[in-house]
């Protein structure tokens, strides 16, 4: 074997340490526990392999430290002790793996039934174990090769300078190299590839989407905004306005129905958020939006997307006597947009609301439309920005003073006002259903069947947050690395399994996979809010005479489309 092959051979055949194997086994077992979202066998295998590899790495490091301490104190571990430990770990490890393979499908089935999914076949535990083992081997080999490189670096430095200098210098070099690889190489290439890919996608149009002919939609021949400048999602939004036939199908006749107004300004329509906001106001003026009953200022998600179910719900509720306005600030998916430019949604949302609010105030108070703000996911993060104050009381006061209602669905963990409200919630109220200031203006809702519906008698304007207890976008956060998340406190929200237990590092890793599986459960769970909009709008901005029976009727109608 050549000299160059020896590092690879050492990485492949080196015997694992007892502490590494023991902690890896513990991490694997903990990775099987359910968290917020159900998992497929592939997802579970990938998650378990990563958790196990981390456990092996930590265990190996701790074992090396322990050995060094024992040697320094002249109390080394004797061979009989080592042999005895290995005799125990083998049968124990096999028993743990077999028990985990037996229990994992049962735990997943319990969780799946809690979110209205069918049982997970027990046989899927077999491919899960096989794939876990394969991925684990790959990760361990990579880790050992990296570790060998670190050791060689240390030895090279130690031979040329005092150990007190070589040790911290090695740590610094490793950290610098790690940051460089992940930020300047991997992240840069990902960013570049994403930008190139999604900028092209943004110039395309979804199959079946055609340019609107009605002057009430942006991109139409009468519009101030060119159809080609709307972007992929903007064209979908502008072309998707509820038709008179669709309105009549629910309302029973065409009497009093109007073609809904949808105003949208694309990223290419103007050079700055402020310029796009001014153009949006001109679109509203052109379409006579300030004569409608309700005007909704929408903050879009990263790609410019507006949930069509949210838009259709309020258009149907008002018989088309609505105006919806939004502007694009990115063409990237939300998670990439948030990483690349977290201020973009804030700047766009603030500019749009300020421009619309200034123009809205010029209308006679008795006849101007009800002004409502809406944001979903990253859109809710941006939508809050125009109203954020130093604390919850100030933020709520801004919302109450400057809007006539607000609906936020699927708020992110980074939402400033949401965090203020959660931190200031009344003692005893859970994080998934906080109570702030007795629910005077701000309330929270979800689809937990054990929670009674919102009391309709509460002060206007109403600010409503809809958040599913199982939504990782709302409840996953970095501190889960070292402390239990609040969503694990009892009582737990609907769909959150009682069996889930916190474990350092592992629960955090599980949360990352939960984020990627946000839509891995039926509507009403996770990050899918399509069933919540009718009730949300009926709570925040109901038309005159609207009641619970109409809400139920519209929900049934839209569900059957």
Short descriptors:
single chain; 561 residues; alpha/beta; 3 domains; 7-stranded parallel β-sheet; 19 helices; 7 strands; 6% strand; elongated
Explain what the structure shows.
This protein has helices at residues 6-13, 18-31, 41-72, 79-114, 125-158, 163-201, 231-239, 244-251, 273-286, 308-317, 334-340, 344-361, 378-383, 392-402, 416-423, 472-475, 506-516, 533-540, 548-559; strands at 261-265, 294-299, 322-327, 370-376, 406-409, 442-445, 463-466. It is α/β, with parallel strands linked by helices and 561 residues long. It folds into three domains: 3-160, no CATH class; 162-201; 211-468 and 529-559, no CATH class. A seven-stranded parallel β-sheet has the order 1-3-2-4-5-7-6, sandwiched between helices. Helix 10 links the parallel strand 2 and strand 3. It is elongated and about 90 Å long. The mean pLDDT is 89.
Reconstruct the topology from this structure.
Elements lengths: L5 H8 L4 H14 L9 H32 L6 H36 L10 H34 L4 H39 L29 H9 L4 H8 L9 E5 L7 H14 L7 E6 L8 H10 L4 E6 L6 H7 L3 H18 L8 E7 L1 H6 L8 H11 L3 E4 L6 H8 L18 E4 L17 E4 L5 H4 L30 H11 L16 H8 L7 H12 L2
Parallel strand pairs: 1-3, 2-3, 2-4, 4-5, 5-7, 6-7
Helix pairs in contact: 1-5, 2-3, 2-4, 3-5, 3-17, 5-6, 9-12, 10-18
Helix content percent band: 40-55%
* Total separate domains: 3
Strand content: 5-15%
User: Count of helices?
Assistant: 19
What structural class is derived from the secondary structure elements?
A: alpha/beta
Described by strand count, sense and barrel closure, the largest sheet is:
7 strands, parallel
Bulk shape: elongated
Please report the total strand number as a whole number: 7
Strand order of the largest sheet: 1-3-2-4-5-7-6
Low-confidence stretches: none
What radius of gyration results from the CA coordinates?
A: 28 Å
Distance between the termini: 68 Å
């Amino acid at each position: 074997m050549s000299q160059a092959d020896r590092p690879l051979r050492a990485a492949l055949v080196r015997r694992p340490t007892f502490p590494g194997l023991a902690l890896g086994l513990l991490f694997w077992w903990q990775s099987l526990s359910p968290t917020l979202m159900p998992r497929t066998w592939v997802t579970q295998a990938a998650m378990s392999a990563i958790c196990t590899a981390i456990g092996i790495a930590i265990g190996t490091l701790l074992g090396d430290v322990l050995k060094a301490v024992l040697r320094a104190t002249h109390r080394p571990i004797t061979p009989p002790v080592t042999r005895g430990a290995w005799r125990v770990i083998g049968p124990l490890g096999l028993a743990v793996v077999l028990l985990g393979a037996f229990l994992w499908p049962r735990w997943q089935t319990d969780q799946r039934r809690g979110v209205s999914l069918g049982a997970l076949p027990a046989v899927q535990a077999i491919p899960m174990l096989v794939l876990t083992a394969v991925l684990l081997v790959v990760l361990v080999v990579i880790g050992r090769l990296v570790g060998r490189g670190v050791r060689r670096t240390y030895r090279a430095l130690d031979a040329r300078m005092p150990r007190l200098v070589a040790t911290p210098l090695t740590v610094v070099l490793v950290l610098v190299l790690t940051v460089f690889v992940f930020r300047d190489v991997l992240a840069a290439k990902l960013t570049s590839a994403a930008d190139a890919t999604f900028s092209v996608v943004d110039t395309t149009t979804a199959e079946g989407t055609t340019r609107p002919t009605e002057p009430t939609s942006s991109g139409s021949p009468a519009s101030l905004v060119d159809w080609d400048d709307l972007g992929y999602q903007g064209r979908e939004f502008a072309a998707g306005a509820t038709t008179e036939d669709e309105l009549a199908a629910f309302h029973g006749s065409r009497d009093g129905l109007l073609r809904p107004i949808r105003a949208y300004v694309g990223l290419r329509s103007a050079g700055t958020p402020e310029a796009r906001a001014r153009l949006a106001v001109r679109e509203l003026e052109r379409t006579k939006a300030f004569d409608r009953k309700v005007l909704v200022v929408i903050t879009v998600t990263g790609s410019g997307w507006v949930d069509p179910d949210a838009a259709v719900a309020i258009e149907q509720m008002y018989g088309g006597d609505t105006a919806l306005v939004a502007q694009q600030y990115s063409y990237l998916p939300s998670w990439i947009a948030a990483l690349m430019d977290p201020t973009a949604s804030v700047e766009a949302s603030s500019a749009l609301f300020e421009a619309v609010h200034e123009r809205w105030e010029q209308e006679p108070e008795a006849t101007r439309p009800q002004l409502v703000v809406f944001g979903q996911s990253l859109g809710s993060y941006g939508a809050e920005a125009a109203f954020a104050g130093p604390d919850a009381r100030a933020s709520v006061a801004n919302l109450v003073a400057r809007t006539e209602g607000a609906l936020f669905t699927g708020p992110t963990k980074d939402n400033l006002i949401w965090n203020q409200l959660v931190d200031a919630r009344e003692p005893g109220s859970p994080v998934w259903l906080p109570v702030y200031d007795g629910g005077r203006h701000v309330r929270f809702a979800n689809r937990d069947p054990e929670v009674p519906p919102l009391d309709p008698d509460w002060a206007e304007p109403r600010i409503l947050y809809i958040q599913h207890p199982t939504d990782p976008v709302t409840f996953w956060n970095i501190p889960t690395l070292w402390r239990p998340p609040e969503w694990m406190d009892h009582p737990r929200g609907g769909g959150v399994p009682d069996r889930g237990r916190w474990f350092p590092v592992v629960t955090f890793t599980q949360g990352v996979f939960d984020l990627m599986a946000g839509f891995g459960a039926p509507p009403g769970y996770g990050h899918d809010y399509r069933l919540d909009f009718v009730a949300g709008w009926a709570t925040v901005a109901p038309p005159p005479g609207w009641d619970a029976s109409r809400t139920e009727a519209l929900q049934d109608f839209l569900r059957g489309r």
